[in-house]
Amino acid sequence: MRTWRKLSKLAAVTTLAGGLAFTGTPAAVADGGSTEKSAALACGGNVFLDGIRALAISENGRDEVYIEADGVKIWPAGGSYVSMTAGQRVEVDKCVRPQAALRLMEVDDLDPNDVIGRVILQGDVTRDYEFCCGDGGRYRIGAVR
Ligand SMILES: [Ca+2]
Ligand SMILES: [Ca+2]
């Protein structure tokens, strides 16, 4: 019963996002397409991390960022970091547990790496979270249930 309700909700959201170009939708919905909703369903009881956007970067030009969940690096899979500029959005596409503690790290060669911010997911909701404001960086990530 619960699964059916969730499917119905996601289908409604997808229809809305696909059919109307209005402002004010949550970024997780506005930034993602129906493929993200399908991927979220593939996460089962977990939360799907959709994409991350750099609202403000902590360094001149580019930040080198990666994401940890519960102390373990989960993104990017094929490298030690992703290089991001202000305003850029990059797909994350990872499943994490509903109450995972996320940390956004910024790699520095000579200093210890910077912590941009931490968030603890609020389980059973689709919403955006912000990593803020370590070293002046601010990033938004969409979590889809
Ligand atoms: Ca730094
Ligand atoms: Ca750096």
TrEMBL record:
<keyword id="KW-0732">Signal</keyword>
<protein>
    <recommendedName>
        <fullName>Secreted protein</fullName>
    </recommendedName>
</protein>
<feature type="signal peptide">
    <location>
        <begin position="1"/>
        <end position="30"/>
    </location>
</feature>
